[in-house]
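Dear Dr. H.,

I hope your travels went smoothly. While you were away I took the liberty of generating a structure for the chain from your last submission, since the lab meeting agenda had it listed for discussion. I wanted you to have the full record in hand beforehand rather than looking at slides cold. The sequence, exactly as received, is reproduced here:
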Amino acid sequence: MLREATDFAGEYVAGRLERVAGEGPLATIEALYDWYRENLLESNYRAGCPVVAVAIESPPEGPDLRDSAREAFERWRRLLASEMEAAGIDTSRAQEIGMLVLAAFEGALILSRTYRDLAPLDSVRREIHERVSAELARQGGS
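The corresponding predicted structure, in token form, is as follows:
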């Protein structure tokens, strides 16, 4: 059941990212942050990323659900990287930045929930926006 829930969550977020595909990497990143920011507020900081929960709380005596979590994260990273590549960022650099965006986002989400404050999420969002914007300018992307 946990594997199905993880797969569902992975698919759900991927679908949200796919809806803004083609609008550029900044639009994709902003959509991700907007959605989770809204979820944090609506849930009084209880909502988070269920894939993270499975990744770090998979019990040793039960099924290893890290594979499902990794597949979800990998799909999201590929979607982010694909948007960056389409905007002119080199493939290997797009893959690296996609991982950075994902790691920073998940960490910021955890901190915002913990602090019950949007400041970590908003701060990381600004930094990621600046980093991706600079990379786009350097690579000649848009």
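Two observations you may find useful: DSSP finds six helices and no strands in the chain. The mean pLDDT is 89.

With kind regards,
E. W.
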